[in-house]
Amino acid sequence: MEEKIPHLSLHVNEDDINAGAARVLAAIRPHWGRRVDFKLLTDGITNKLVGCRGEEGETVLVRVYGNKTDLLIDRKAETRNILLLSRLRLAPSLYATFENGLAYEYVPGCTLSPTMAKNPKIAHLVASHMGKLHKVQVPDISNPQPLLWPKIRNFLDLVPEQFSDITKNERYHKIGAPTKMQLEQEFSFLQRNLSKEKCPIVFCHNDLLLGNVIYNSEKDQVTFIDYEYANYNYQAFDIANHFLEFAGVENVDYGNYPTREFQIFWLGCYLNEFQPDASQSQLELLLNQVDKFTLASHLFWGIWALIQTEHSDIAFDFLGYAVIRFNEYFKKKEQLENLN
Known about the structure:
Layout: E1 7-8, H1 17-28, E2 37-41, E3 48-53, E4 59-64, H2 75-87, E5 94-98, E6 101-105, E7 110-111, H3 114-117, H4 120-134, H5 148-158, H6 166-175, H7 180-194, E8 201-204, E9 213-216, E10 221-224, E11 231-234, H8 235-244, H9 260-274, H10 280-311, H11 318-339
Parallel strand pairs: 1-5
Antiparallel strand pairs: 2-3, 3-4, 4-6, 5-6, 7-9, 8-11, 9-10
Organism: Tribolium castaneum
Protein name: ethanolamine kinase
GO biological process, one term: phosphatidylethanolamine biosynthetic process
């Protein structure tokens, strides 16, 4: 029997998030009353998140979606995925959805830093957890297809020919960033070449930045959060995307990208969970595929950032971030072409 989660017909104003969160709590935690502590938390660069702590000690998280993010994310699929994964103990419990967000379980712990992510003990936990996630089977999907190509296609269709803010247009052209036509060409190039890779299609997180991994030192375990983009995709994309997120988002530093030695260690931990009988040659094949799929991650999030440049109300330099990802894309593409 499918689990029913309450949907609240209310909209939370981003400029008065505590008052909106209080209305959500009145519906799902009516016994709390008004004595609630609210704390605005960081939640990546897409949404706003507030922690709500009641007198009895329970904390509920209320996440408010960023402006126009419904253009990018299938919210029904997100809810379905969270319910499925929480039943498997791979995601926090979902308490309710509302018009522009959701309320869910608080998981104690801290998000990862690049140093923590490279700690062998924590890396082993993350790799094993991703291995578990990649074994998930979504009911009623017998022939899964990768999210990557239709989602990039969707993103490209949403990229404006011109930004509504003229200063952003001038800056973008001055930087010499790729035009929409060039991005279309790169998309075709990637789809043509990466589709040839015999890479497994598995259920992926697709956005495993370090801020989406919670480490609990007392229990010595990790939890993945924010399954907005979760869907079937190429195994190597999810891993490559996670490795690239070692560089961070606010102050991007690709010097933090994992070394080959670390990647081999991480993939070994991952395969011990995902495919215990994997051979050394299979590990090396996956290592090679991960390297190639870094291109897809750069293009994916670079195009995503252009859409955010047009629509997001969050104070973040999305345009600058897009340019960083595109620059890394072309640098990596040249390296791979030279190898070939």
